[in-house]
């Protein structure tokens, strides 16, 4: 359990390397900032691309619950900052391509975009290893990309193509790749499943962790709390994380949740609220979380404070339950990409032209990938394709029933 | 042997005693299908018939029942301020206030259990699921807390509740958002289960569901909300209810009985027109309306005339509504059949996303027509 000292600790903006045991009892309530450019450089920026230097995150990057905050100073390299920037731009361009394709009626059904939330997917991936696991909801394109999916495979899936990441079977909400377990359509259901990933990690040994994402709306599902309980009981390496974008469809967090401090909702699990518009803060938080689980402290509940620029899905204009000013304010002053760009320029990590060329590179990459996706063939409308993968190959029943007796499909083994 | 024949004989007797239904059933007017100006004018002039979308019909039914009984309230995700994810509850918050039109958190098991509790205590909740896919989160409360309580309590504790929302496959939403639960709820003792097709069905059955003292599962269809149907003057009134357990013959025929429900009724109607045009045969189309109880009487009566039965539904084939219809037909009407009863259903596959594959997973009008033609050896 928690020591007395740590139990007293509350959201303490201890600058830099506060040793974990130091009790500080400033109980001032502050909210985490969503300023995307609030870090400071803390050591000279080296010439070399790979040489680390230090940056200090804003006091207001974190808020903690029954937990000391992560170190506010972190090491970065020029290369990594540029990579983070590029990753976020690619995700945004990819989502914008999806937006266009949807409006051209080339994408069917639901399509949930993560525009505005890029720092979460990118910050997480930069904090974990490929051997760690990630699971999320239907708002999954950016995560799939960060876990290793190509842009063309994601867009190909949205277009229902045979070379889409799920061979056209899954669609916008369902994509899987190594270390990435979806892409889940039932709100909240991925949370206990994610705890199961952590269970398996503990079972098989090693220092891996599971990053489990769900929305502010999803946080009210009972199974989220069931997962919390088991994860704590069994000390699972689970990094639960509420992507608080302020709304679940048209319902604001305050109208759905009796406690909107989602990082405190683990009750007996330490919590960490993080500025989800700042990719550096996200990275620092998840890295800290990963270390926490690696030291066998059990789960942590994170809250990434973020914002979705668009509607809930493509069919929701997203303007009936919030003001245009609110959206505009977030876009213009808290944008994760603009924030990191400002740092990169101010710290002399790269010049404007270099960033412009990164933008251009990302845009042309997404355009090429989008064109490649559009050029992909749709799955053949054959029973063989329709009925493949209902069961593991070689373990299928003798036949599957079609719509009529005539359409029954017999597997030829 | 005689034991198995008895139901058929008994039904035959009742059927004979029944007043014959009028031959000219309202022509189906559905979306792209023929809505001739002539028909419309006739309706407007002579009988005060109006066009209603299924959505409007549901909205009107809710409003009327909320008006009539202050024990009725509506609860669900996005039903109030957002006016419903599919706009079925549009305007209800403004009209009836937040006490009676209640937005819930996304917590199906929780709010369903809560609604059931309110029903046990004497209120008449209308519990909306954004879609029935999400009711799977709450199915334990529907089955164990709502459906069984009257019986478990020896008749002491009723539960007047209506569970409603869109059911069945929708376009392009993939495996987790595209499933038909008719058979699931249809198999539970203590539940009544209905599935409207037309606007009149929607209004009359929803009002009946809310008024019925039992737990009722009311299965709408997402693809039908925007479709318009003529609504008779009688159905526009606030005392219009349809009975449970009564199917409706939507199209009279003599050569083949097509039994269907929900959206597939419309497809069967189109297929029947095709059969007539191409082959000159007349298929009788029965709109089940009610899944539990199921109107076997109307089915048998029709089979006695046509001697052939085809069930059409969009659910998974195994252990489904069609399987039940075929079994009942065998039990009650075996002697009247000239050929084995058949079914067209959804395929036994999780719903694929890609359009061409999705099309292969659910009944289509041409498929129903072709299969019927084959059954009739045309
Ligand atoms: C169990 C369940 N209930 C309802 C839905 C419909 N639905 C899809 S997304 C959503 C809102 C979720 O909001 P949140 O968890 O905040 O995630 P966000 O969309 O903001 O990323 C709802 C109600 C669903 N998919 N699953
Ligand atoms: Mg949200």
Give the topology, please.
The complex is a heterodimer of chains A (413) and B (378).
Chain A: H1 4-8, E1 40-41, E2 53-56, E3 62-65, E4 73-76, H2 78-103, H3 118-125, E5 133-135, H4 141-146, H5 151-158, H6 190-204, E6 210-215, H7 222-233, E7 238-244, E8 247-248, E9 251-252, H8 253-256, E10 271-275, H9 279-294, E11 300-305, H10 324-333, H11 336-346, H12 352-375, H13 383-387, E12 399-400, E13 409-410
Parallel strand pairs in A: 5-6, 6-7, 7-11, 10-11
Antiparallel strand pairs in A: 1-2, 2-4, 3-10, 8-9, 12-13
Helix pairs in contact in A: 2-3, 2-11, 2-12, 3-9, 5-12, 6-7
Chain B: H1 2-17, H2 37-47, E1 50-53, H3 54-68, E2 72-76, H4 92-96, E3 101-103, H5 108-120, E4 124-128, H6 132-135, H7 139-147, H8 149-152, E5 162-167, H9 182-186, E6 192-194, H10 199-211, E7 216-221, E8 228-231, H11 233-236, E9 248-251, E10 256-260, H12 263-279, E11 283-287, E12 290-292, H13 296-306, E13 309-312, H14 321-333, E14 342-344, H15 355-359, H16 365-375
Parallel strand pairs in B: 2-3, 2-4, 4-5, 5-7, 6-7, 10-11, 10-13, 13-14
Antiparallel strand pairs in B: 1-8, 6-12, 9-11
Helix pairs in contact in B: 1-13, 3-10, 5-7, 12-16, 13-14
Thiamine diphosphate sits between chains A (137, 139, 185-187, 215-218, 243, 245, 247-249, 312) and B (77, 106, 108, 130, 134, 137).
Hetero groups in this structure are: thiamine diphosphate, magnesium ion
Question: N-to-C terminal Cα separation of chain B, in Å?
Answer: 34 Å
Distance between the termini of chain A: 56 Å
What does the main sheet of chain A amount to? 6 strands, mixed
**Mean pLDDT over all positions of chain A:** 93
**How would you classify the quaternary structure?**
heterodimer
Query: Biggest interface in this structure?
Result: A-B, 52 and 49 residues
Low-confidence stretches of chain A: 1-29
Rg measurement of chain B, Å: 20 Å
The outline of chain B comes out as: globular
Instruction: Report the portion of residues of chain A in β strands.
Output: 5-15%
Order of helices and strands of chain A: HEEEEHHEHHHEHEEEHEHEHHHHEE
Q: Based on helices, strands and strand pairing, what is the structural class of chain B?
A: alpha/beta
Q: Cα-atom Rg of chain A, whole angstroms?
A: 22 Å
Helicity range of the residues of chain B?
A: 40-55%
Keywords (chain A): Oxidoreductase, Pyruvate, Thiamine pyrophosphate
Function (chain A): The pyruvate dehydrogenase complex catalyzes the overall conversion of pyruvate to acetyl-CoA and CO(2).
InterPro entries (chain A): DH_E1 (IPR001017), PDH_E1_Alpha_Subunit (IPR050642), Pyrv_DH_E1_asu_subgrp-y (IPR017597), THDP-binding (IPR029061)
Cofactor (chain A): thiamine diphosphate
């Amino acid at each position: 359990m928690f020591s007395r000292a740590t139990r007293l600790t509350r959201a303490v903006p201890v600058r830099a390397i506060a040793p974990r045991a130091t009790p500080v009892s400033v109980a001032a309530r502050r909210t985490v900032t969503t300023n995307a450019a609030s870090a400071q450089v803390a050591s000279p920026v080296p010439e070399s691309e790979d040489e680390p230097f230090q940056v200090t995150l804003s006091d207001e990057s974190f808020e903690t619950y029954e937990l000391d905050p992560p170190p506010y100073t972190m090491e970065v390299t020029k290369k990594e900052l540029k990579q983070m920037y590029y990753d976020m731009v690619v995700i945004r361009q990819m989502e914008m391509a999806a937006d266009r394709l949807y409006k051209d009626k080339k994408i069917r059904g639901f399509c949930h975009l993560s525009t505005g939330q890029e720092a979460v997917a990118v910050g997480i991936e930069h904090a974990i290893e490929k051997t760690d696991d990630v699971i999320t909801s239907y708002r999954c394109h950016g995560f799939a990309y960060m876990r290793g999916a190509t842009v063309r495979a994601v867009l190909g899936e949205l277009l229902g193509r045979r070379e889409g990441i799920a061979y056209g079977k899954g669609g916008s909400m369902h994509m899987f790749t190594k270390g990435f377990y979806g892409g889940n359509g039932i709100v909240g259901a991925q949370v206990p499943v994610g705890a199961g990933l952590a269970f398996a990690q503990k079972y098989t040994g090693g220092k891996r962790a599971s990053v489990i994402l769900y929305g502010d709306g999803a946080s009210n599902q009972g199974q989220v709390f069931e997962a919390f309980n088991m994860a704590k009981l069994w000390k699972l390496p689970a990094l639960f994380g509420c992507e608080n974008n302020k709304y679940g469809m048209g319902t604001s967090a305050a109208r759905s949740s009796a406690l909107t401090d989602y990082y405190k909702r683990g009750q007996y699990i330490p919590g960490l609220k993080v500025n989800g518009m700042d990719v550096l803060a996200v990275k620092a938080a998840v890295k800290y979380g990963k270390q926490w689980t690696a030291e066998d402290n059990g789960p942590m509940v994170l809250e990434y404070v973020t914002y979705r620029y668009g509607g809930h899905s493509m069919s929701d204009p997203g303007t009936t339950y919030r003001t245009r000013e609110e959206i505009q304010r977030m876009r213009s002053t808290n944008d994760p990409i603009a924030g990191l760009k400002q740092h990169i320029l101010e710290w002399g990590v790269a010049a404007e032209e270099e960033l412009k060329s990164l933008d251009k590179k990302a845009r042309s990459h997404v355009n090429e990938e989008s064109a490649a996706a559009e050029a992909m063939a749709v799955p053949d409308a054959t029973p063989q394709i329709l009925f493949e993968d209902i069961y593991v190959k070689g373990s299928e029943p003798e036949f599957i029933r079609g719509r009529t007796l005539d359409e029954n499909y017999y597997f030829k083994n | 042997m005689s034991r198995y024949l008895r139901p058929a004989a008994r039904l035959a007797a009742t059927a004979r005693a029944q007043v014959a239904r009028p031959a000219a059933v309202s022509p189906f007017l559905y979306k792209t299908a023929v809505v001739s100006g002539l028909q419309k004018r006739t309706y407007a002039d002579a009988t005060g018939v109006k066009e209603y979308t299924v959505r409007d019909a549901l909205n009107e039914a809710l409003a009327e029942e909320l008006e009539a009984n202050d024990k009725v309230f509506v609860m669900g995700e996005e039903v109030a301020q957002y006016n419903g994810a599919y706009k079925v509850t549009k305007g209800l918050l403004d009209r009836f206030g937040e006490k009676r039109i209640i937005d819930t958190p996304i917590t199906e098991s929780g709010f369903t259990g809560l609604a059931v509790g309110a029903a046990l205590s004497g209120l008449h909740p209308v519990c909306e699921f954004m879609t029935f896919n999400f009711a799977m989160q709450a199915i334990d409360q529907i089955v164990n807390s709502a459906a069984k309580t009257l019986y478990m309590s020896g008749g002491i504790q009723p539960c007047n509740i209506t569970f409603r929302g869109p059911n069945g496959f929708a376009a392009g939403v993939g495996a987790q958002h595209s499933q038909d639960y008719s058979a699931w709820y249809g198999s539970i003792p203590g539940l009544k289960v209905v599935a409207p097709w037309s606007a009149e069905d929607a209004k009359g059955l929803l009002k009946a569901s809310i008024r019925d003292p039992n737990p009722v599962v009311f299965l709408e269809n997402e693809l039908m909300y925007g479709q318009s149907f003529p609504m008779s003057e009688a159905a526009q009134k606030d005392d219009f209810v349809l009975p449970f357990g009564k199917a409706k013959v939507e199209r009279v025929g003599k050569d083949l009985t097509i039994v269907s429900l929900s959206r597939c009724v419309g497809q069967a109607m189109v297929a029947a027109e095709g059969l007539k045009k191409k082959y000159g045969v007349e298929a009788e189309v029965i709109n089940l309306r009610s899944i539990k109880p199921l109107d076997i009487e109307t089915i048998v009566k029709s089979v006695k005339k046509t001697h052939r039965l085809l069930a059409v539904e969009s659910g998974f084939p195994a252990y489904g509504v069609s399987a039940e219809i075929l079994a009942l037909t065998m039990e009650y009407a075996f002697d009247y059949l000239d050929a084995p009863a058949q079914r067209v259903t959804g395929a036994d596959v999780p719903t694929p996303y890609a359009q061409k594959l999705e099309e292969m997973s659910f009944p289509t009008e041409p498929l129903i027509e072709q299969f019927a033609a084959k059954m009739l050896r045309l």
